[in-house]
Each structure stands twice: as structure tokens, then as C-alpha cells.
Amino acid sequence: MKALVYKSTSKVELQERCIPHLLAPTDAIVRLSKTTICGTDLHICKGDVATCQPGRILGHEGVGVIEEAGSSVTCFRKGDRVLISCISSCSSCSYCRRGMYSHCETGGWILGNTIDGTQAEFVRIPNANSSLYAVPSGVDEESLVMLSDILPTGLECGVLNGKVQPGSTMAIVGSGPVGLAVLITAQLYSPSKIIMVDTDSNRLKVATKFGASATVDPDTVDPATAILELTEGKGCDVVIEAVGLPTTFELCQKILAPGGVLANVGVHGTKADLFLNDLWAKNITITTRLVDTISTPLLLKLVQSKRLDPGQLITHRFKFSEIEKAYDTFKAAAHHGALKILIEM
User: Fold this and answer.
1) Contact 178, 241 (CB under 8 A)
2) DSSP secondary-structure letter at 335?
3) Where are the coiled-coil regions (predicted)?
4) Angle at CA 155, nearest 5°, toward 80 and 66?
């Protein structure tokens, strides 16, 4: 089979690999029909994710068809169309029983990280009963690919961790795919104002189209000053860090209102400073989280009922044979106006 392999820092390559086989009775083999590239895949390519070693097949998102199911897989059978969760869950360990699937003792974020992932023609899914979801009839599969990771990440790590409530004022620092996923799902909770921050004018235009109340470009104004002006000097009740850089984390601290929540969503590859000398008396909360995908069933219902349209995040489409070109496009997202890239088998 063809598979996209992480070779070394900044280098990926489409290679010929053996089709995976069942290693446990709880496994399933899925033939991919659609996948995508995540910002985390780019972090791996930069060398920011030490657990992912060269030689690994990348990818943790996708939709496909069950090719083979182990004897203990009771929820699915050969031929079923399934959504692959980016998080693998045994559903029974102490972390899973607390809803912390990302810390599953035998799973978590392993696809495209510590085991071979979904940017291939076939993938082995451990703990298939609790790591796959049936594709509802009549639902656009392209949209469902966005439910493998990006929509649950935006909702759980951003909106829910940020404690967005009706009337909240929000700032989302970073208008990339994850920041826009936060924007889309935050509107389910009726905040009064959502301010998007980014240096990419195209992404700010998209954010406005998707429902942002205001946009701020740090290349043209001082972002902290601009956001304080937009909030009558108070700052924001909820601030989402969706980039993963020390400078953006610092900005988030500056624009947080007393009693506010700073929810970190970005993947940080280096240390970031925490200014407790400014924050210690402000009654603020800072949260971190790796997506658990506990919200996937809810999101499936919202997409099925057409309350959400994740497909609007897709800007580019490539055949799987063109996936190296797709990576080049995603790495230069600002130049190409790229958000999510759909890879079709």
C-alpha cells in the first residue's frame, strides 16, 4: 500500500508499505477513503513531538470502510463506513472511566504518533469498538473528516475548557483551522463578542464570514491595546491560545479580564513565560488539554441535523498520490489561503 512517512525533520515521503494486519482481537483494519493534514503533523515535521520517530506513517484523522475486524470487535463489521477518532480509547482504564481518553493507558493520541497513522491506504485501529464511530446515513463524509480531531479540539480544549457562557466576551488568538473551529463551536454557547486575532488577512476575512464580531491584525495595531479598547478596558472573559508560540501566550495573558479563563489549545514546542507578577491577584484560570473526543457523538448529531457545517473549513483537495504536494501547500498556508486540506484516496 502507499503511505506518507515522516523521514526526518522537514521531510515526508510517499512510500510503499505492507498493509497492516490485526495484532489483537480488539483491532480493526480500515481502508481509508478520505483523510487530512493536521497542524500537529507539521509540528512533528519540525521535530517538536519527540514521541514520533522517523519512519512513522503520519495522520490521525479520516473516514473509511472496515476491511477486517477482530473477533472481539462487536460494534462494527466488514463493509461498515466509519469515522476514525484521533484518540484511541480502551474505555475501561482509570483515565477512560473519567472521560480522559487522551490519557488512556493503552491508547490516547497514538495514531500517527507512536503507531502508524491514517495517511495511508489502510490503517490498523486498536480498541476499535470505542475508537471508531459509525457514519450516519446521508451525512457528507468530507465534513465528517473534520470531526476526527479539529472540531472536538476546538469545542473541548477551547470552548468547554474556556467556560464560554451566554454573554461572554471572547478573544481567539490564532485564526487557523483550530482557532476557526473554536469560533464555530463557541457560537453554540451565545457569547456576546468574539474577537479573532491573526496576521493573515485572508484568515481574518474567513473569521468574519464565520461569525467573528471583530478582528485584530497585530501587524497593523498593538493587539493588546486594540482588544482592551473593544472591551471597554476590561479585557476578555475567555481567551483562547490557538497558535502555540511564546508571543501569543504572552498576548493572551495581557488581554484576560479579572475572573477570566485562558484556555490553551496550541501545541507548544518551546517554553513560554507565565507573568504571575501581573496575574496573581486577578482570579484567573489557565487550562491545558489534549482533546479527549468525548464530544464526538454530540458533534455527529449537530452535523447530521445541519446545525454545524465543518465542511466550510475545507479549502483545498488533493488525491492521495499528491499528498507530498498537499504538505507543501499546507506548510505555506498563508500563501495559498489554505485552511483544511482534504486528501481523497
Assistant:
1) no
2) H
3) none
4) 10
